[in-house]
Amino acid sequence: MIICSCQRISDTDINSAIDWMRSADPATIITPGKVYRALGKKPDCGGCMHLFVATMRQSDNLEVPAVLRGLKPRYREKDKAHEGRHQGHRISQQGS
Length: 96
What we know:
This protein has four helices and two strands.
């Protein structure tokens, strides 16, 4: 099925690029930009990006490498009131 009509990219092309990248470097994070570059193309209008990403997500080789999983800091209850900001983020509070 054609995913990107501007660049003539099919779902088979996307899956082949993902498989190739995963076999070349098992620890790489695969992004739509990397897939386009692997195919020697550039995104044109961006109208296909939703379908492009959905097609990528269907690939078994797209998963995040085990080494990189869980690196995001865990949500802590005390951070809830600050929305991720440090205390004293306002100019009026910095001198206090």
